[in-house]
Design a protein that fits this description.
Largest sheet: 14 strands, antiparallel, barrel
CATH superfamily: Outer membrane protein transport protein (OMPP1/FadL/TodX)
Order of helices and strands: HHHEEEEEEEEEEEEEE
Shape: globular
Radius of gyration: 18 Å
Strand content: over 45%
CATH architecture: Beta Barrel
Number of helices: 3
Helix content: under 10%
């Protein structure tokens, strides 16, 4: 009964919440989730979704997919998949995601490119974002993202990302804007088995959110992660398994009022130097 009520509340409130953070800006990949979504400084295949600038430091081609099961409700499930291809001058990424059920669902497809320039990596991504609400109809709009990484020194990395740079509207006939989100952060890496990320995220209509994440390599192929967020207060835990050309990640996030969310992701790597 509680699950039905929560889903009904979400559907009823969604038309009034377009101008706030929605599912379209949810980070993807269980590694990110395990770190409390402090992901703006990460340079992995999931940068296609989380910070396109990080794609420029990727080595090796990858295909990847994820499954997020939120609060025990199938209607709040997110599926995502993509491919990242490395080249001599630029790296290219394609990402597709889908959220929701029959009454309410969102789909996004995006293509991005990134290039490493010395100690920095810059990227741009174009998305086509679609929302369907039973009784309200369908809308779609293009979105633009910009992002970048910079290696301040071998132990410190800076990252920044802007989602919906042009502050696109929900549709051509709507005055409701999709979220414009800016995030920036630092990553401290004192050893190749330890990473500490600190990040701030701001949507123009909401209070800023602070994220902290830690990743520790127990062994070369086994990693443990944890993270915490403010506003709202959430706890995150995760593990990663990296045998040869595979990456398998799992994360568990806890909302203090609503409960647990499970995250799974899988990467396959080839042509890695």
């Amino acid at each position: 009964m509680i699950k039905v009520f929560l889903f009904g509340f979400l559907v009823l409130m969604m038309p009034a919440a377009y101008s706030q953070n929605g599912t379209e800006v949810l980070p993807k990949g269980a590694r990110s989730m395990g770190l409390g979504n402090a992901n703006v400084t990460l340079g992995d295949a999931w940068s296609v979704f989380n910070n396109i600038g990080g794609l420029g430091v990727l080595e090796g081609n990858q295909v990847f997919a994820s499954y997020d099961h939120r609060l025990g409700l199938s209607e709040l499930t997110t599926l995502a998949a993509g491919v990242a291809l490395t080249g001599e001058r630029v790296n290219i990424g394609l990402g597709i995601s889908s959220f929701g059920g029959e009454l309410f669902n969102q789909q996004n497809i995006g293509v991005g490119i990134a290039r490493k320039l010395g100690l920095a990596s810059l990227g741009v991504k174009i998305n086509y974002f679609q929302t369907n609400i039973e009784g309200f109809g369908r809308s779609a709009t293009p979105l633009l993202e910009l992002g970048g990484l910079a290696e301040i020194n071998p132990q410190l990395v800076f990252g920044a990302h802007i989602y919906n740079l042009t502050r696109a509207s929900l549709s051509k006939v709507s005055q409701e804007h999709l979220p414009m989100v800016v995030k920036t952060g630092l990553s401290y890496r004192p050893a190749n088995f330890l990473m500490i990320n600190v990040e701030a995220e701001k949507e123009i209509l909401l209070d800023p959110q602070v994220k902290v994440g830690l990743e520790y390599g127990i062994q070369e192929i086994l990693w443990a992660r944890t993270g915490i967020n403010t506003y709202p207060n959430n706890l995150f835990f995760g593990i990663g398994f990296r045998p040869k050309n595979l990456v398998v990640d799992y994360a568990l996030s806890q909302h203090l009022q609503l409960g647990f969310t499970h995250h799974f992701s899988f990467n396959y790597i080839w042509n890695k130097p």
